[in-house]
Amino acid sequence: MPERVGIVGVPPLEIIARLNREGAEIVDLDEPQVQESLGRTATLVPQVYCAILRTVVLNALHLHLDRVFVDVGPGKCNGALHIADTLADLLSVPILCTENRDHRPFGFPLCTTAMPLVDRFVRITKSVQSAAPHEARPPCKALCGFWGVPPRDFSVLKPFPPQTHVFGWTRCMENKTPADLDLERHCDPHLPTVFFTQSFCAKSALAWRLGRQHPQALVIDCDVSPSNSARAKIEAFLALSGVPLADDHASG
């Protein structure tokens, strides 16, 4: 029976390729996998940790896993290292710490093609589980940009039009080079851009710095799910920038 292997962050390509060859089922512990409240982690993880890392622990409490690989290098965050220790206390399976310093670019066709943004983020996060080359896709002429990490709740992406270019760590994720800081820093000063992080994420400092330097930027963070206020700020920013909202969102 195939192993069920959890991953946190983006483990090195060598590890993903080996798991693919072994036929392992890969489970992304950064994404919500169970219908349980994050409050279940309150005694295990401080509330000042981002919702992504709290989600990792929540998933680990409820899923049967045979192994877990945690990227604790510069491509993730220091918090992941301490979460790995927490998982080692909670689980009776091996918790394997890795550092993804891969530098061979895989490309990021999903980040620059025209497609509903939620659909693209689903595919980008899923692509971490495979070592296969990306499917070629034509780039689009962008109307705006989204910079940052994949949000825990993808509903924050709904207002963006299909012609949104994706920057930041999400682009590094699709490129399979999560520690590429130069790529993470890259954004287009000609595009109105939303700089997004999860609340309490260390990447907030980079988002604020890039946002201050950008001529047309909105810097925003969300904890577990986006509030009505956060959605309204994004919609207003896009509208005032002359960017049409996504058809499915604008139609209600």
How is the secondary structure organized here?
Elements: E1 4-8, H1 13-22, E2 25-28, H2 51-62, E3 67-71, H3 78-90, E4 95-98, H4 109-112, H5 117-127, E5 144-148, E6 164-167, H6 169-175, H7 181-185, E7 193-198, H8 204-213, E8 217-222, H9 228-240, H10 247-250
Parallel strand pairs: 1-2, 1-3, 3-4, 5-6, 5-7, 7-8
Helix pairs in contact: 2-3
Number of domains: 2
Beta-strand fraction estimate:
15-25%
User: Pairing-aware structural class of the strands and helices?
Assistant: alpha/beta
Extract low-pLDDT stretches: 248-252
Rg is: 18 Å
The tally of beta strands, per DSSP, is: 8
Per the principal axes of the C-alpha atoms, what is the gross shape?
globular
Instruction: Return the average pLDDT rounded to an integer.
Output: 95
Which strand order spans the largest sheet, edge to edge or round the barrel? 2-1-3-4
Q: In whole angstroms, how far apart are the ends?
A: 45 Å
List SSEs in N-to-C order.
Answer: EHEHEHEHHEEHHEHEHH
Helix content: 25-40%
Largest sheet: 4 strands, parallel
Number of helices: 10
